Amino acid sequence: MTSWQVQDAKQRLSEVLRQAADGTPQVITRHGKDVAVVVGIDLYHELTGVRLELADYLLQAPEVDDLEVVRDRSSLREVDLGTGS
Fold first, then answer.
1. Host H or E run for residue 26
2. Which residues on neighbouring strands pair with residue 29, listed in sequence order?
3. Is CATH 3.40.1620.10 the right assignment for the domain spanning 2-59?
4. pLDDT class for 6, splitting at 50, 70, 90?
5. N or C terminus of the chain with fewer C-beta within 10 Å?
6. pLDDT over 90 percentage in the chain
7. Which one, of 31, 28, 36, 32, lies nearest residue 11 by Cα?
8. How far apart are CA 30 and CA 3, in angstroms?
9. CA pair distance 59, 68, nearest whole angstrom
10. What is the chain's mean pLDDT, rounded?
11. Where are the domains of the chain?
């Protein structure tokens, strides 16, 4: 990571942005303390991800109108619920 004082980052913003876009996060400092990080848009999307509400997720599910579900109609099996003695 490259570190920039606020004033230097302002004067060389194009370089800060270019390096961030190339995949190197750029740390901005004020009075010697880290205050911000500039990252490229690809890294930003990777870190934040796309989060959908449950309803939107379900609405994007594939259509199942043609799905044929076949139920097993064979007789049930015997289960022994004895006390085990």
1. strand 26-30
2. 5, 34
3. yes
4. very high
5. C
6. 46
7. 28
8. 11
9. 20
10. 90
11. 2-59
From first CA to last CA, the distance across the chain in angstroms is 71
Separation between Cα atoms, residue 75 and residue 85, nearest integer Å: 28
In this predicted model, which residue has the larger pLDDT, 62 or 24? 24
Do residues 54 and 30 make contact, with C-beta atoms less than 8 angstroms apart?
no
- 3-state SS, 50-73, equals CCCCHHHHHHCCCCCCCCCCCCCC
Contact yes or no for 18/2 (Cβ under 8 A): no
Structure tokens at 58: 């379900």
**Above 70 in pLDDT, residue 53?**
yes
Query: Residue 14 carries which DSSP code?
Result: H
Rg of the chain on CA atoms, in Å: 29
